[in-house]
Every structure is written in structure tokens, then in C-alpha cells.
Amino acid sequence: MNTLAEENYLKAIYHLSLDCDNVSTNQLAARLNMKASSVTDMLKKLAEKTLINYTPYQGVTLTDTGEKIALNIIRKHRLWELFLVEKLDFRWDEVHEMAEEMEHISSNELIDRLDRFMNYPKFDPHGDPIPDCNGKLDTQNLKPVSALPIDQSATICGVRNHAPAFLQYLEKLELTIGRKIHVTEIIEFDHSVILKVEDKTVQISREIANNLLISL
Amino acid sequence: MNTLAEENYLKAIYHLSLDCDNVSTNQLAARLNMKASSVTDMLKKLAEKTLINYTPYQGVTLTDTGEKIALNIIRKHRLWELFLVEKLDFRWDEVHEMAEEMEHISSNELIDRLDRFMNYPKFDPHGDPIPDCNGKLDTQNLKPVSALPIDQSATICGVRNHAPAFLQYLEKLELTIGRKIHVTEIIEFDHSVILKVEDKTVQISREIANNLLISL
DNA sequence: GCACTTTTTTAGGTTTGTCTAAATATTTTA
DNA sequence: TAAAATATTTAGACAAACCTAAAAAAGTGC
Q1: Pick from A98, A104, A105: which is nearest to B98 by CB?
Q2: pTM for the complete prediction?
Q3: What Å distances lie between residue B66 and B9, B17, B49, B51, B206, CA to CA?
Q4: pLDDT in tens, B49-91
Q5: For an interface test with A, which of B85, B95, B107 has the most A Cβ atoms less than 10 Å from its Cβ?
Q6: Which among A89, A97, A110 is the nearest to B113, CB-wise?
């Protein structure tokens, strides 16, 4: 159907599209650890297959077909991540690389059965929504902890960054998905946030607060 | 570590080695659906990496390292096949192609946990032994049904051929792994075998009898 | 043991997906 | 608005893993 390289490009374009309208060649090159010239080559190929809209120098967007494929890969990635955590007892900071390989297993029947096996979950271990078999996803309206005012309570629902070191740090502070937090103080000088998680008081930097997502 | 193509060659060499001492270029080409010249190229490359013993015109054998890698891929293949049948309810004739992709997921930690998740199974859905994490496998001493004399009882323990059409046919006759059979007659003319499976009488051709394995 | 057949290897070519270096387009800045 | 900086594309090369066609080695039959 599509090659591994093509699938990785579509996925990268999808993710970058969430933050801007047109994804640039350099943005893609940075995300994929490739040279811009290689990206240009592939963009031509994907445009040829009408998976993206590409005008030279103007960046790209996904076509409907391209987006569908991207969402299917993301669906597979997130379902496999959840499988690894739920069934095989991996930690949330360990599963990304494995899922990067598993998301390319082609069978859709397989992934639909995995979905059923896990009881049609809505979210992966990092709180990211899992597209259903039609590519639909539950969009939660999440805010970073850094946007909370003092004395506000909220529930941790996601992370903006999946780096293992970041996830391990959150784990250590018990700042994991589903936990309730309450903001007790915001340090004016550096915008550090002091908050309570289940009776424990912890302090996190603005950087951390920006990357930890909550719903009210 | 190793490329997908390399892994497929090592696996093919392993399987062909079970039937003969030195695997020839043409045997490999036939099994892998490739031209002999392509095989020669890859054999040089694998010899370079000391995964096989290769002398031009003399065929190949696996080195210890090569065999270890082959067994690890077979371990993954068979564990994933069992997962698909046991956990996701696929039929035994549906899982081969999916497992061909899944066997290349690199993480050994993953496969060891999958092994644990399924309670350290010894055999896959076709009765083939699953190598343990050290590459050891339980060898059952299996014979084809065609080797049974009249009036002998036995238990179905494996198949020599994994073609979906063959497996579906066996399924229809209820000639599946674990079933007890009893040979009642052997037709002299074409060596067809008439046997009883759980009170039902069925007749199978010599070809089928050759590919269905039992233990006494 | 020599001709014939079959098997294997060699030589040279193709595609995919990457690269470097150079050229060109766009954007920024002064 | 022109020069400088940055972003993007083009041109040409390379490695992996295939291919076809031709050459060479091995095996076989009389």
C-alpha cells in the first residue's frame, strides 16, 4: 500500500499541522531528522499520489486521503502503546519506540480486533485520543497547568511532550494521568507552580507546567 | 541490527536446513521468490557478517550467530501467531501473513513479555514448537499420518504445510491440533487413509496424510 | 571424458530513499 | 528597496536490494 517512509512523512505532517496551517520543508526535515532536500523529494512523490497538497516554497497540507492514512497510523500507534502498558506492563515512558515499529503492521482487521480486545479505549497511556476505525477522535479541551490560576483544581489528562526523561520525572512526582491537582502558589519570579497532588506538595518549573495538560 | 531482508534470508536458510545439510542458491531463490543472482549477492553479504558459511557453488549453512538470530525470529513469529489466535480470535489459517510482519518488531523485551503474557507456551497454533528466550526448542518426534499402520491410534500434533486452503480443509474435517484419530483402512490403490476422528469417519488423500503430523 | 544441461556467479542496470553541494526563491533588515 | 540571511529546490551521487543477460562452474549421460 504505502511504504514505511511515506507513512512516516504523513504522520509527521499530521502532527505538525496541529500547530500551523502549512507545514514547511524545514519543519519536516527537523522532525524526521533528515535533510531538507530529501524532504522535497518525498513531498513531490506524496503530491504525485495526491496524499498532500504541495506547491513549491509554500509548504504542505494533507489531502483527505492523506489525513485518513495518517489517522490510521496514529490509531495503530496509540492502540499498540496502550496494549504494551495495559497488557504487557510496560511503563508509559518505555513504549514509544516499540509502537513506532508496530504502527506499520498493515492489517486493519488486526488493529480492529486489538481495539475490541482492549474494549474500545478512547485514550492512550499519555492521554492522547485514539482515533476510532473511521478516523474520528474525541477531542478533549486541554490546557497546560501553566494556564491555571491560583487555587484552581483540575485533573491531569495529558502531556505535550513524550520524552522518556519528562515522563519519568512526572511519574516520580506522581503527576500521572487521572490524578487530581490543586494549584496553591505561582512563583512570580520564574513562574514555577506549587501544587498539591493527593496531599503531597510539589513544585514544578514553568517548562514542566507548560507540558502537562489538564481539564477542569 | 539486521535488515528485514537479511532476517528473511536467515529464516529461510534455517527452515531449508531442516531438510538438507547445505542449502543451495536455487532452493533459497525459490523459497524467497527471488532470482538466484539476487540470492548470491545477499549470501556474500551475510557471509561478510559471519552469519552464514558460504563457499561459492557449495551452498550455505548458518553459523551459530546466524542460527541464533533465525531462531529468535521464529520465536517471535510463533508467539505472535499464538497471540493472534488465542487473544484476538483469529483462525489458524489467517495468521501467517500478519506474523510475517510482526516477527520483525525488534524489541526482545517485548517478545519476552508477550511470552510471559501467554504463560510461556511451548507450541504455536499449528503445533510448531516455540523457541524459548535462549533459542532452545522442544522437539517432538512427529510422524505423518501416512506412516501409520491400520488400526493405530494417535494424536494430531502438527502440520507440514501452512497453506490457508490446507488448514481450512483440516478445520472442516475437524482434523485439528490435539484431536485423537484412529486409522481404520488404507486404500491400496492410491494410499488414501480412512480414519475416525471423535466418532466421525473421514477419508483423506495420501497428500493430506503426508502433511498431517501425529504423535503416538 | 566430452558434449549437454543445470546451477551458480558475474556484470551491469533499476528503484527507493537518503545524502552533499550548488542554485534559486523568499523573507528580513537596515 | 536592495543587500543579506534564510528557506527551498535542483542536480548529481550513493547504498540496499532487487533485476536481466551473459559467463563460468558443476553435474550428467553415453
Answers
A1: A105
A2: 0.91
A3: 10, 12, 9, 4, 36
A4: 999 999 999 999 999 999 999 999 999 999 999 999 999 999 9
A5: B107
A6: A89
